[in-house]
Write a structure and sequence with these properties.
The chain has helices spanning 3-18, 22-38, 40-58, 62-67, 69-91, 96-102, 107-119, 122-131, 142-172, 178-200. With 204 residues, the chain is mostly helical. The longest helix is centred in the C-terminal third of the chain and has 31 residues, at 142-172. It is found in: Cell membrane.
């Protein structure tokens, strides 16, 4: 891969990660809820889920989803239901004590929640299937190219999601009183539900 192609890939990867969606909503919700340091587990989950999607595309399994509307619909609605459930969970926090308790959720829970957000986004698989071949040279070995493309996409995702959660975490300090903390949770919940609505409209 030439330097020019890699720079184009990097720019595309950053734009993909910057675009509003479930990942952005999740990282910002994590930043508001857990702070910058605590949100790193959610970021790790998002990046891991994205990595699994890239691996699936590399293995060619996404073609099965593309050719199977039923499978696409099943995966899509699992993601929609999960995001709505997570958003409603934020909304159901009624007291400051409950809100505070969420900040001490186990690390593995934060990781798995974010992982599931990206894994259950089938539109990401279809998009990656269309994107990755654009930066590959069929006359050269495929594996090294896939490694470079995958690493670039993951690095961009990690950088942008860390930025989103960090930005949200700076606002967290402005929500010190119980009422403001309650609205903080509702804001995060609303963002997740909105992301679910976007995902529900995804089509092949």
């Amino acid at each position: 891969m030439t330097t020019e192609i890699w720079i184009a890939l990097l720019g595309t990867a950053l734009l993909i990660s910057l675009s509003p969606g479930a990942s952005a909503a999740t990282s910002m919700g994590a930043g508001l809820t857990y702070g910058a340091r605590g949100a790193c587990w959610s970021t790790l989950g998002l990046v891991s889920g994205y990595g699994i999607q890239i691996l699936v595309v590399a293995l060619g399994l996404s073609s099965l989803i593309t050719s199977s509307p039923e499978l696409f619909a099943i995966i899509k609605w699992i993601g929609v239901v999960y995001l709505v459930w997570l958003g409603l969970r934020f909304w159901r926090q009624r007291a400051s004590g409950e809100v505070e308790s969420l900040a001490f959720a186990p690390r593995h829970t934060r990781f798995l929640q974010a992982l599931l957000v990206n894994i259950t986004n089938p539109k990401g698989l279809v998009f990656l299937l269309a994107l990755i071949p654009q930066f590959m040279d069929p006359s050269k070995p495929q594996l090294p190219q896939l490694v470079v493309i995958g690493a670039t996409l993951l690095a961009a995702e990690a950088f942008v999601m860390t930025g989103y959660s960090g930005l949200a975490a700076t606002l967290r300090h402005r929500f010190a009183d119980p009422v403001a903390m309650l609205w903080q949770q509702r804001l995060a919940g609303t963002a997740l539900i909105a992301a679910a609505m976007v995902l529900s409209a995804a089509t092949l």
